[in-house]
């Protein structure tokens, strides 16, 4: 295995435990990796405002690191907060996605700044608010907001009824957007050719780090692109079976059992490095 120089970590259900905390062991292990010269990248579907408290907890506001936000539509330097990439969903594709979702009875969400804008109240938005801490705002003319521009659309719903909608969206805008489920109950519409993998490639190129020296850890389908792109892709023990099939390595630890710390100790700091 090539010596790892960059470590990309998903947040929810990977770095974060079920209570949304990061264990002392994991924080300490990440700092040891940084001391060994490894650049840390937090890669999440969350917006910057919902990621920065974890970046600060890890001390990334004091040291060079990166935040891949919105599943790759934004990249931010952790220590300067400079934006090095900012990609918006094409308005035409966004409007088609919204119209199809609304016609099928789905609520739609947009995340900007520290606010979750929603087309109508729903239980999934309440759950999302609990996880991210973002404030909900119901927008009466949501279509107008979509037309004005956004980084991504999120359509929440029961996984069984989201699947037909995903197929419909792929038929109509599959060439003009990136479409996937980040969680079984969250269908996401992003700009075309935009995902955590392409964002990770941007950071690696900026730092002249070859992909063979990049290790990425995740659990869900929004982690697929970065796990495929990285030289070493790792799936959590609690991860989606489809991600486990893709990953080169599978941790035998879950997010609640310090799975990230275990991977770092084994493949960056330890005897398997």
Brief summary:
The protein has 273 residues and is of the alpha/beta class. The chain has helices at residues 11-15, 24-35, 48-57, 91-103, 123-132, 142-148, 159-173, 196-206, 224-229, 241-246, 259-269; strands spanning 6-10, 39-43, 66-69, 74-77, 83-86, 109-112, 115-118, 135-138, 153-156, 178-183, 186-190, 214-218, 232-235, 249-250. Helix 3 (48-57) links the parallel strand 2 and strand 3.
What does this structure look like?
The protein is an alpha/beta fold. 39% of the residues lie in helices and 22% in strands. α2 packs parallel to α11 (259-269). The longest helix is centred in the middle third of the chain and has 15 residues, at 159-173. The radius of gyration is 18 Å and the shape is globular.
Salient structural properties:
273 residues, alpha/beta, 8-stranded mixed β-sheet, 11 helices, 39% helix, 22% strand, globular
- Percent of residues in beta strands: 15-25%
Note the main sheet.
Answer: 8 strands, mixed
User: What is the overall shape?
Assistant: globular
First-residue to last-residue Cα separation: 7 Å
Share of helical residues = 25-40%
- Please tally the β strands and state the result: 14
Overall mean pLDDT stands at 95
Individual helix count:
11
Main sheet: strand order: 5-4-3-2-1-12-13-14
Radius of gyration: 18 Å
How are helices and strands ordered from N to C?
A: EHHEHEEEHEEHEHEHEEHEHEHEH
């Amino acid at each position: 295995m090539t010596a790892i120089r960059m470590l990309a970590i998903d947040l929810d259900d990977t770095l974060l435990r079920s209570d949304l905390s990061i264990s002392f062991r994991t924080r300490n292990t990440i700092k040891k990796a940084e001391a060994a010269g490894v650049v840390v990248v937090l890669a999440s579907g969350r917006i910057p405002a919902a990621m920065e408290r974890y970046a600060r907890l890890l001390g990334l506001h004091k040291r060079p690191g990166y935040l891949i936000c919105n599943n790759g539509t934004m990249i931010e330097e952790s220590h300067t907060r400079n934006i090095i990439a900012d990609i918006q969903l094409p308005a035409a594709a966004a409007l088609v996605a919204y119209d199809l979702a609304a016609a099928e009875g789905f609520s739609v969400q947009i995340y900007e700044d520290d606010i979750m804008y929603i087309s109508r109240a729903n239980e999934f938005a309440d759950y999302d608010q609990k996880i991210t801490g973002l404030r909900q705002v119901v927008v009466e003319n949501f279509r107008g907001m979509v037309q004005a521009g956004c980084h991504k659309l999120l359509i929440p719903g029961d996984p069984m009824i989201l699947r037909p909608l995903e197929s419909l969206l792929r038929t109509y805008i599959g060439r003009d957007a990136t479409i996937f489920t980040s969680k079984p109950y969250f269908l996401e519409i992003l700009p075309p050719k935009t995902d955590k993998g392409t964002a990770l490639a941007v950071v690696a190129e900026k730092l002249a780090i070859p992909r063979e020296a990049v290790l990425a850890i995740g659990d869900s389908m929004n982690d697929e692109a970065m796990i495929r792109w990285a030289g070493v892709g790792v799936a959590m023990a609690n991860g989606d079976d489809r991600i486990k099939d893709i990953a080169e390595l599978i941790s035998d630890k879950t997010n609640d059992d310090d799975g990230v710390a275990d991977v770092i100790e084994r493949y960056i700091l330890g005897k398997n490095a």
